[in-house]
Structures are given as C-alpha cells and as structure tokens.
C-alpha cells in the first residue's frame, strides 16, 4: 500500500488541534498531535461561548499547525494532503479550520479532505488497533451520545442515541448542582466511590422502550429534587453528596449498559468475524461505566476496546486518520467545501434534536 502522510486540523468545539499521521504497509503512526484547549477562556461562563471559541481558534490554528509539522519533522509540501473537520460543531470554529485548511492546500498545491468530526471519533479504533469493519461504537462525551455500526470509512448506521442531554453534560450539571468543580465527570466519579448508590432512587429513563435511544436530562431533575429534600432537613453533608453522586452515576451506567446490550444484539446479527465493541469520548474514562461495559462484552463474547484518553477526547490525529481513509477511497473535496454546523453521519437516520453545551449534535 502506498504510504500516505496527512496533516489533520480540528476546531469544531473548544480544542484547537493539529496532527500529522502516516500510514503505509505497517500500523498507522501518529507523527505528532498538538491540542490547545480553551478551558480557562470559558471557565467564568459555565459553558463554551461560541464567539470566544471561534476567536481563539482563529488565533491559535497557525501556531498549532506549525508545531505539529515541526514535531513531525516534516514540511507541509511533503504531506500528501490536508484533512479538516468540516462539521458538525460550533460554526465559527469549524469555519476557522476549513479556511485555514483551504489556504494551506491552495498554497502548497495539496488535496483537501473534509472530515465529519464524528467519523473521526468513530474511526479511531482503526488508527489505534487496526480493527476490521464492521464494529460497534458507542460515542459518549460532553456533546455526543450515540451507537454507531461502523461498516466502512464512509458507511455508518446510527442505531440510537440521546434524545436530549449527552451523559457528560449530565455529569457536568450534577457537579454544578452539588458545588463540585468542572469538568464534572471526574469530580462526580470521585464522590461516587465514597457513596451508597441505593440510598436515593434515580430513574432509568427509556428502558421500557425497545429501541436504542436514551435520555439523561431527567436525571438532573431527579438529582435536584433529592438534593432539595435533603436540604429541607438541614445542610447537605459530605455523605449526602457522595450518595447522590453514586446514585446518579449508577443510573447513567445502567442505562448505557442496558442500551449497549440491545446495540450488541443488533450488531451480532451482522455475523462479524471478530466482534468488537469500541467506546470513545470523555465519559468512557469513567471507571464504573467502563467496568459495566467490559463485563457486558465479556458476557456477550465481544472484544472491548477503549482508545487511550488523548485519542478518545477531541484531537486532530483522528481527523488526519479519517482523512487517510477517505484519501484511499478517493473522496476528495475542493475549494467549495462548506463548514456545516449539523452533519449527521448516517444520512438515512432521523435527525436528533437537543441542544447541549458543546453545540449542535448530529
Ligand atoms: O470527549 P470530551 O473531552 O469532550 C467533548 O464533550 O467533546 O468529553 C468531556 C466530557 C465532560 O462532560 C466530562 O465531564 C466528561 O467527559 N468526563 C467524565 C469523566 N471524565 C470526563 N464523565 C464521567 N466520568 C469521568 N471520569
Ligand atoms: Zn468530539
């Protein structure tokens, strides 16, 4: 197979990122991966502010690209192309990235490849473990929550997903309601480890429905109600907080595990040779959720795969890799490539509604 080296660019949310990935006959190689986060810029606002994000991307992109090329020890003209996230995401940031990539391609005479951000996440198990199609993927982060059947580099079937909040968003809101720091996931997990999950009754939404859709926004209302009940009798003590976190986390885990069981059944109906269930996204870092999914995979005879955290969360190596996959299918773009705030991976699936702190969902 001809060796390909691509520069990848990502700016669809609150991370500005650039990376260089190479692939020939051997396993793919990440030559560099630079991520400049914006957490501090948005810290005072309780969420990502699109205008601030867009401006920061525009300021940092050139620098990230230069750094990625320097760390990889390669000049732009020696790359075979530039892959860029063209959506879905916050439009100002996506536009900054697309304009940057167009400029680089025009200047160096390189092919341009627009990548769907979700395809970047979904194809990561091939970058890290050279997994064969088809495999099952659960994308679970602050902005995404969906089950995907990954059948090819440009063939995705959405089996189901959240109809409202993403789980990471629910973790973040829970932390806020209990006075814990952001991002909420790690803080809630640490509290949950000290708590009793049975003390408070949390709902397991939509388990009565046979599909693979999920809902997480009701959990925070349940949490608020239980918290207020405790506070009617006085202050919220450390043990109350730990028990609330444990109950909330167990509910999220149970919903994800129950819906994963259904997604696995749908996937196994395709009779894959070596069945794989992969996760991606920040919430995949949660040890209780991971253990639940791992046990389910062991019981169902699937290999469970969770890419290392820097490749689970937003990065440009996954975009460069998705670009390599598209390059091999001759799926190129030109200067008319548009930035898209919404861009469902599965073009046949019903559009999902729902807002979210991380911007539009596909
Ligand atoms: O994938 P990510 O870095 O960014 C996007 O949302 O795109 O995911 C961040 C989300 C945050 O909502 C954060 O609270 C959550 O992942 N998270 C966790 C844990 N670590 C991060 N949620 C639960 N448990 C964790 N240990
Ligand atoms: Zn993402």
Characteristics:
362 residues; alpha/beta; Nucleotidyltransferase, domain 5; five-stranded mixed β-sheet; 11 helices; 10 strands; 43% helix; disordered C terminus; binds zinc ion
Characterization of this structure:
The strands form 2 sheets. Strands 3-2-1-4-5 form a 5-stranded mixed β-sheet, sandwiched between helices. The protein folds into 2 domains: 4-127 and 311-360, Nucleotidyltransferase, domain 5 (2-Layer Sandwich); 133-309, 2-Layer Sandwich (Nucleotidyltransferase, domain 5), CATH 3.30.420.40. The chain contains 11 helices and 10 strands. 43% of the residues lie in helices and 18% in strands. The chain has 362 residues and is an alpha/beta fold. It binds 5'-O-[(R)-(carboxyoxy)(hydroxy)phosphoryl]adenosine (KG4) and zinc ion (ZN). Residues 117, 121, 141, 314 line the site of zinc ion (ZN).
């Amino acid at each position: 197979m001809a060796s390909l080296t691509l520069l990848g660019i990502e700016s669809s949310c609150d991370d500005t990122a650039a990376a260089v990935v190479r692939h020939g006959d051997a396993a793919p190689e990440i030559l560099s991966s630079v991520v400049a986060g914006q957490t501090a810029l948005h810290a005072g606002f309780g969420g990502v502010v699109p205008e601030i994000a867009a401006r920061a991307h525009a300021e940092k992109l050139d620098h990230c690209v230069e750094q990625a090329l320097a760390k990889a020890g390669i000049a732009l003209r020696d790359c075979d192309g530039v892959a860029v996230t063209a959506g879905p995401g916050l439009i100002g940031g996506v536009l900054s990235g697309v304009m940057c990539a167009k400029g680089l391609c025009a200047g160096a005479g390189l092919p341009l490849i627009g990548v769907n951000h979700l395809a970047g996440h979904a194809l990561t198990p091939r970058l890290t473990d050279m997994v064969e199609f088809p495999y099952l993927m659960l994308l679970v982060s602050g902005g995404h929550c969906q089950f995907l059947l990954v059948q090819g580099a440009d063939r995705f079937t959405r089996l189901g997903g959240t109809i409202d909040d993403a789980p990471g968003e629910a973790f973040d809101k829970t932390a806020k309601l209990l006075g814990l720091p952001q991002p909420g996931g790690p803080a809630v997990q640490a509290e949950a480890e000290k708590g009793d999950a049975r003390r408070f009754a949390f709902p397991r939404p939509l388990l009565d429905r046979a599909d693979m859709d999920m809902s997480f926004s009701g959990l925070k209302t349940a949490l608020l109600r239980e918290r207020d009940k405790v506070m009617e009798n006085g202050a919220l003590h450390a043990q109350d907080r730990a028990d609330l976190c444990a109950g909330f986390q167990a509910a999220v885990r149970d919903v994800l595990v129950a819906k994963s069981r259904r997604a696995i059944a749908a996937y196994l109906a395709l009779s894959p040779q070596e069945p794989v269930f992969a996760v991606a996204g920040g919430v995949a870092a949660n040890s209780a959720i991971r253990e639940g999914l791992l046990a389910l995979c062991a019981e169902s005879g699937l290999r469970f795969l969770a890419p290392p955290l820097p490749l689970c969360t937003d990065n440009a190596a996954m975009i460069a890799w998705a670009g390599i996959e598209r390059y091999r299918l001759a799926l190129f773009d030109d200067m008319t490539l548009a930035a898209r705030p919404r861009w469902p991976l599965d073009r046949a699936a019903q559009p999902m509604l729902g807002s979210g702190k991380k911007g539009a969902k596909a």
